[in-house]
């Protein structure tokens, strides 16, 4: 149990031949039995036809160490990121939200813009909310609707259009608000402290 009273999750390790170890990440299928899949819409979108060459196989992994001795174990690997041929959501069912937390850094608005435009143009998602002023915005009910038009030129401006905040937050209130709003995709943008907060939200939810 960590300092927030949240049970630490055991790391998922997958053992393979010749000393291969995969430090895996949690997946929806770990919690939802018989999880349905759907074809990735990028496969039928002419504008993204080149993506078909770069779909990532489910068994693709990336080694922790680039240089190893020929007789040494294969070592630790991590799941490779990238587009899959199958997705685990229907665009019409997605209600996403984006939040920025912690200190400011270059590129926050660019990340917001790319998430909104990527969800809309690449995956057909039309419901995206922006949470104002960091984690506390979840239970302050400060949200804005985000469309490609709303974020069209924000990458030219500094800071974050959503605002941000530092400090603690009420994890249970955040989870309750996510559930009340029927949000099923949460994009949390920030540094180390923000990702610790994201991990706490994941564990409580």
From TrEMBL:
This is Phosphofructokinase domain-containing protein. It comes from the Eukaryota. GO terms for molecular function: 6-phosphofructokinase activity; metal ion binding. Keywords: Allosteric enzyme, Kinase, Magnesium, Metal-binding, Transferase. InterPro entries: ATP_PFK (IPR022953), PFKA (IPR050929), Phosphofructokinase_dom (IPR000023), PKF_sf (IPR035966). The lineage of its organism: Eukaryota, Viridiplantae, Streptophyta, Embryophyta, Tracheophyta. One of its GO terms (biological process) is fructose 6-phosphate metabolic process. Its cofactor is Mg(2+). Transmembrane segments: none annotated. Residues 96-202 form the Phosphofructokinase domain.
């Amino acid at each position: 149990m960590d300092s927030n009273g949240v049970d630490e999750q055991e790391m998922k390790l997958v053992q393979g031949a010749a000393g291969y170890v995969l430090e895996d990440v949690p997946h929806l299928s770990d919690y939802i039995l018989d999880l349905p899949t759907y074809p990735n819409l990028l496969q039928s979108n002419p504008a993204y036809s080149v993506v078909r060459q770069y779909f990532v196989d489910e068994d693709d992994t990336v080694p922790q160490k680039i240089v190893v001795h020929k007789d040494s174990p294969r070592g630790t690997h991590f799941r490779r990121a990238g587009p899959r041929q199958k997705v685990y959501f229907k665009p019409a069912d997605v209600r996403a939200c984006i939040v920025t937390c912690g200190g400011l850094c270059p590129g926050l608005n660019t990340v917001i813009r790319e998430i909104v435009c990527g969800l809309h143009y690449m995956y057909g998602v039309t419901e995206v909310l922006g949470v104002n002023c960091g984690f506390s915005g979840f239970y302050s009910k400060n949200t804005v609707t985000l469309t490609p038009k709303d974020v069209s030129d924000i990458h030219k401006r500094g800071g974050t259009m959503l605002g941000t905040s530092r400090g603690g937050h009420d994890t249970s209130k955040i989870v309750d608000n996510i559930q009340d709003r029927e949000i099923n995709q949460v994009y949390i943008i920030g540094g180390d402290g923000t990702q610790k907060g994201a991990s706490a939200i994941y564990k409580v939810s």
